[in-house]
Amino acid sequence: MSVLTVLGIESSCDDTAAAVLRWDGAAHVLSSEVSGQTDLHAAFGGVVPEIAARAHAERLDLMVELALQNAGVALTELDAIAVTAGPGLIGGVVSGVMCAKGLAAATGLPLIGVNHLAGHALTPRLTDGLAFPYLMLLVSGGHCQFLIVHGPESFERLGGTIDDAPGEAFDKSARLLGLPQPGGPAIENAAQEGDEERFSLPRPLLREPHCDMSFSGLKTALLRARDEVMIGGNQLKRQDVADLSAGFQAAVRDVLAAKTARALEAYMAHSPAEPALAVAGGVAANQALRAALQDVAAKAGARFTAPPLSLCTDNAAMIGWAAIERLRAGGSADDLTLSARPRWPLDTAALPMLGSGKKGAKA
Ligand code: KG4
Ligand code: ZN
């Protein structure tokens, strides 16, 4: 098939998304619609799976219609229907898979179940045309892992968080400091006026020779540092919040940079023809982290890329793209027995992690 037009559907956490992608020798995002649910979950301090699933079920048809309309493409012009089949909050994934199955059954189009993480991991090929193999750091509210992307369905996991994801740590830490959600941008903002050396927070597992990381202890250390400032009934001053934010952000940055350097070493041993480090996920928006990663990549002789934020965070264009990659590589479609999977590791040969973010699978 020389031209492929694919509808992508994503509903694995708290974004209901649909997109239309076309491959004609070059990649085109014809439309990419995302309906977030932040407002629905705001009062609960996290994503409530039942509320998310219901909202997805209510919104999926509308988003699909909008994506087709904005792309100027009719259902009959599509070559395939792609949908996130996991990992994620099961109710949301089931909503998306049911919607995609309905469309596939009605149109007779091939159905393609996509791994959400593969969607993130393959995005740098959509946006920057990266050649295989490249190193990917996925760093979001629900995920944190290093992957060598060898091919459209070939991923080698080098390591990741053993407890909280960094975005989750940013969000929880912001709460401890009385800053608004999402915590990442709030902490980054406060840190601009802060002294990162006033509080020395831990850099867990830094000396260990592997690529695994831990972020939950960092949050506890921040809580202790905060409580020390507040001893004797002291109120947290603006400068205290700025310094605590700066110290926290520096610790996350240092751990991610050091482990990225280690992952790059393992990746470079594969002698890639065009060495590249790509980063994806909401935390990749952090400027201090980006600068540190850029530096680490340059030192290793690798190109550094980060997709634009709209394709870095959850979206359906990456799902449509992953399906196009599979079809171009000669992979086959799924059928109506496709099932939704709450857990679905990309690298089945890698040891399972102790945890992978408690906010639900999101990357
Ligand atoms: O990829 P994403 O939109 O999906 C989720 O995993 O939810 O990532 C959202 C996460 C949140 O935890 C948010 O606090 C974090 O990314 N984040 C940031 C920044 N912007 C968003 N973390 C650090 N610095 C930022 N500038
Ligand atoms: Zn994601």
Plain-language structure description:
The chain folds into 2 domains: 4-123 and 311-361, Nucleotidyltransferase, domain 5, CATH 3.30.420; 134-310, Nucleotidyltransferase, domain 5, CATH 3.30.420. Helices cover 42% and strands 18% of the residues. It is built from 11 helices and 10 strands. It has helices at residues 38-41, 49-71, 90-107, 116-128, 166-176, 183-191, 216-229, 238-268, 287-300, 309-312, 317-328; strands at 4-10, 15-23, 27-36, 80-86, 111-115, 134-139, 144-151, 154-160, 276-280, 303-305. The strands form 2 sheets. The chain has a 5-stranded mixed sheet, sandwiched between helices. Helix 5 runs antiparallel to helix 8 (238-268). The longest helix has 31 residues, at 238-268. The radius of gyration is 21 Å and the shape is globular. The protein starts with a strand and ends in a 35-residue tail after the last helix. Mean pLDDT is 93; it is low at 354-362.
